[in-house]
Design goal:
Elements (H helix, E strand, L loop, with lengths): L8 H4 L1 H10 L4 E4 L1 H8 L6 E5 L3 H10 L3 E6 L4 E6 L2 E7 L1 E6 L4 E5 L3 H6 L9 E2 L5 E2 L5 H6 L9 H7 L2 H13 L7 H9 L9 H12 L5 H9 L13 H14 L5 H8 L4 H10 L4 H12 L10 H11 L1 H14 L3 H16 L9 H6 L6 H16 L6 H6 L1 H5 L1
Bound molecules: adenosine-5'-triphosphate (ATP) and magnesium ion.
The site of magnesium ion has 4 residues, from loops.
Length: 409
């Protein structure tokens, strides 16, 4: 098989040519996601390459051609090259000599077949040269990719025992590329039997992988299989509502939203501060992630589809626009009545498009108006803000300062 290089810009661009020329055309091939996605007709994101050269040779040859090189993962043979602003992850062919369920001790090799044997799935073990020719050392990758069949290289159980992350990768790739196909029985049985091995994975790896899974266009069927096989309950005991996931995906489509793994996670969880706090802690989420999820779980605003425009904006202001958007989409997803559902999508759009007004009075204004500094000033400021919000943000500075007499009494 051969990829049409005119249809795949990443194969034909200047940066690619420079890498092949620097390392020697026969010494390096593309591998993994870019080759897989090109064959499947899916967009290509990151560029992984495999080479017979050792990292220090790769580094020297690239530097000689003035290509920037970063030693990102030297111990397992990976360097990152940046040519004409394009990033390439270049990894020396390797084989595993020892594994512990996550990390492998590797040995470099010049043998493409050995390198293919340590890759996770047959469709991820396809290589492409500069001319677009595809190499399939396992002998199954091309057949499997044509049948959209996700299959472990070798025996599923043995491959999972080497690295339990492969369970999650299996479901992630199934969610992305294997949707309509029944899962390979051997692989699914192995994932179910060995699921407790995922306990030794770091929270960061689990969360990164789950986010990728939840970012697939329609992951709910895969998520359902994970739930039915008990694969998700150890990782996400607080988020097991696959119907909620399916419903939010429908609303995303209806409202033309971008895929958002956080919204999908919220759709699978109950709006319960304690449960969400547990989820955040276990997955070691970042502060940004934490504030979005906790903001949603703890929101006390009275958002509702039946509010007047003025009252709706007041509630959006109180909640904050991101939280209001999240709540509205999730309420739309939960609504059975299409009128209510559309109402919530309307609330979402208002929260998205409305520019949050800025409170017009500053501390300086109060001083000029004769208010003395101190704790009382803070209270006056709060009281004015309440008046301003209640006015639907229409009261301007003059009107608010004129109201000081009422408060100062
Ligand atoms: P994408 O980049 O689109 O998420 P990918 O297949 O390129 O998908 P990467 O994580 O970038 O995934 O890995 C690149 C390649 O390295 C994979 O295609 C696979 O061949 C191999 N690989 C990555 N992680 C593992 C693993 N845990 N076990 C075995 N092989 C792996
Ligand atoms: Mg990749």
């Amino acid at each position: 098989m051969k990829l049409d290089i005119t249809a795949h810009a990443w194969l034909a661009r200047k940066a690619t040519l420079r890498i092949f020329q620097a390392l020697g055309e026969g010494n390096v091939r593309f591998v993994g996601g870019c080759v897989r996605n090109a064959i499947l007709g899916a967009p290509v994101a990151d560029l992984d390459m495999a080479t017979v050269l050792e990292p220090k040779e790769v580094t020297a040859l690239l530097k000689a051609q003035k290509i920037a090189v970063h030693a990102t993962g030297l111990s397992h043979g990976t360097v990152t090259a940046v040519a004409n602003d394009v990033v390439f992850e270049i990894t020396t062919l390797r084989k595993d000599v020892a594994t512990d369920g996550r990390h492998a001790e590797v040995e470099f090799t010049k043998n493409w077949n050995e390198d293919a044997q340590r890759r996770d799935f047959t469709m991820n073990a396809l290589y492409a040269d500069l001319g677009g020719n595809i190499y399939d050392p396992t002998g199954q990758g091309l057949d499997d990719i044509k049948a959209v069949k996700l299959r472990f290289v070798g025996e599923a159980e043995a491959r999972i025992r080497e690295d339990y992350l492969r369970i999650l990768r299996y479901f992630r790739f199934h969610a992305w590329y294997g949707q309509d196909k029944a899962m390979d029985k051997q692989a699914l049985d192995a994932c179910r039997e060995l699921k407790s091995g995922m306990k030794q994975l770091s929270s960061e790896r689990i969360w990164t992988e789950l986010k990728k899974l939840l970012s697939a266009p329609s992951p709910h069927r895969t998520v359902n299989v994970m739930l039915l096989n008990g694969v998700l309950e150890t990782l996400l005991p607080e988020a097991s509502n696959s119907e909620g996931l399916q419903r939010v995906i429908e609303v995303e489509k209806k409202a033309g939203l971008k895929i958002d793994p956080y919204l999908r996670l919220m759709a699978m969880a109950a709006r319960d501060e304690f449960a969400v706090a547990g989820l955040i802690r276990r997955l070691k989420m970042s502060n940004t992630e934490k504030s979005r999820l906790l903001g949603w779980a703890s929101d006390m605003s009275a958002l509702d589809v039946a509010l007047s425009d003025k009252d709706l904006k007041i509630e959006i202001y109180k909640a904050g626009s991101q939280i209001a958007m999240d709540r509205a989409i999730l309420r739309a997803a939960g609504a059975d009545d299409p009128i209510i559902r559309n109402g919530w999508i309307g609330v979402y759009k208002t929260a998205r498009d409305w520019e949050r007004p800025v409170f017009p009075v500053t501390g300086k204004d109060l001083v000029t108006a004769g208010v003395s500094t101190g704790p009382k000033m803070g209270k006056i400021m709060e009281a004015l803000k309440t008046l301003w919000i209640r006015s639907g943000f229409t009261a301007d500075k003059d009107r608010l300062l004129a109201a000081l007499v009422l408060l100062n009494r």
